Amino acid sequence: MRSFILAACCLCALAFASPGEIISQIPAPGGNPDGLTWAEGYLWITSDTDHMFYKIDPSSGAVVDQITPPGPGTGALTGLTWNGTHLVATVQPWKIYFIDTATGLAVDSIPAPSSSNNEGLCWDGTNLWSTNPNNNAVYKLDPGTGSVLGFFQPYSPAGCTGLAFDGFNIYISMQNTPLMYVHLPMVPQPVAYYLLPCETPQDLAWDGTYVWLTEYEETGAQVYQLDPGTQHLAPATWAMVKSVFTE
Ligand SMILES: [Ca+2]
Predict the structure, then answer these.
(1) Cα(116) to centroid of ligand 1, in Å?
(2) What's the average model confidence in pLDDT over 43-72?
(3) Which tops the pLDDT comparison, 236 or 52?
(4) How far, in Å, CA of 196 to CA of 211, rounded?
(5) Where along the chain do its domains lie?
(6) CATH code of the region 21-236
(7) 100 C-alpha vs ligand 1 centroid, how far in Å?
(8) pLDDT interval class at 240 (50, 70, 90)
C-alpha cells in the first residue's frame, strides 16, 4: 500500500508540476472584475465599472448572459459563489443576495458579516465563507441568516480577499499582493502558498480541477486558470489522514 501511495504521489507531482502556473487566460468582459465563481460549466464574473454580472465561456471569455445586480446598482460587486441552485453575490452596501440566474432576480438576502468591507465568497456545500481584507478575517456564515458561525485570521500578509473551496481546502488571495494561500477551514496556518501572475488579485473560483483568479484592473483585466498544485488531493482532517494511511 505504501508503494502504491508513493507512486500515486509521484504521478500527482508530475501532473501538477508547477503550482500557480497559468493553464489558460481569458479577458474579463468589464473593467475591475471583483467577484468570480464557477457554475455548471461557466464562469460568472462581476464588473465594478459597469456594475454587471456576466456569464462567460471559460474557453474564450465570450459573454453568454448578463444580469443587473440587486440593490442600488452602483456599489462594488465584491464576491460571487454558486450554492448549486443560486448565484450568491456580495454587493455594496453590504448584503449577500441569492439570485435566480434564469430571471436575474434576487430570491433572498442576508446581511454581510462586516460593516467596513466584505470581499470574496465561497460555498463549502453547507455554509458560506466571506472575507474582510481590513481585519484579515475569513468568516463562516449560516446561509439562512447570515449569522457568523466562526472565523479565522490567516497567518499571512494582511488583506485576504478572494475565496474558493475545492472540497477540502479554502484558497485565499491577498489584496494588492501577488500571493494565494491554501488553508484547511478554520486553521490559521496555511497548507501552502503560491505566487500569482498579477499584482491586483481579487476573487477566486474552483472548476473541479483548477483555480480561477480575477485581476482587478480598469482596462485589459484578465481571468487566469491556475494549476492548484496537489493540495486539492490532500485529506482535510487528521482523521482522514489516518484513514488514508491505514486502508
Ligand atoms: Ca472581490
Answers:
(1) 14
(2) 96
(3) 52
(4) 11
(5) 21-236
(6) 2.130.10.10
(7) 21
(8) low
Q: If you measure from the C-alpha of residue 91 to the centroid of ligand 1, how many angstroms do you get, rounded to a whole number?
A: 10
The answer, yes or no, to whether residue 12 has pLDDT greater than 50, is no
The cell numbers describing 83, all together, are 450554492
Burial string for 196-225 (b: 16+ CB within 10 Å, else e) reads bbbebbbbbbbbeebbbbbbbbeeebbbbb
Question: Cell 455554509 belongs to which residue?
Answer: 127
Ligand 1 centroid to Cα of residue 229, in Å, is 23
* Cα(92) to centroid(ligand 1), Å: 11
What distance in angstroms lies between residue 103's CA and the mean position of ligand 1's atoms?
24
pTM: 0.87
Three cell numbers written together for 2: 505504501
Question: How many Å separate Cα 57 from the centre of its chain?
Answer: 18
- Ligand 1 geometric centre to CA of 127 (Å): 18
119 CA to middle of ligand 1, Å?
4
> How many angstroms separate the alpha carbon of residue 212 from the centre of ligand 1?
13
User: Hey, what's the cell of 67?
Assistant: 444580469
The Å distance, Cα 36 to ligand 1 centre, comes to: 8
| Distance in Å, CA 6 to ligand 1 centroid | 38
pLDDT in tens, 162-202: 999 999 999 999 998 899 999 999 999 998 888 999 999 99
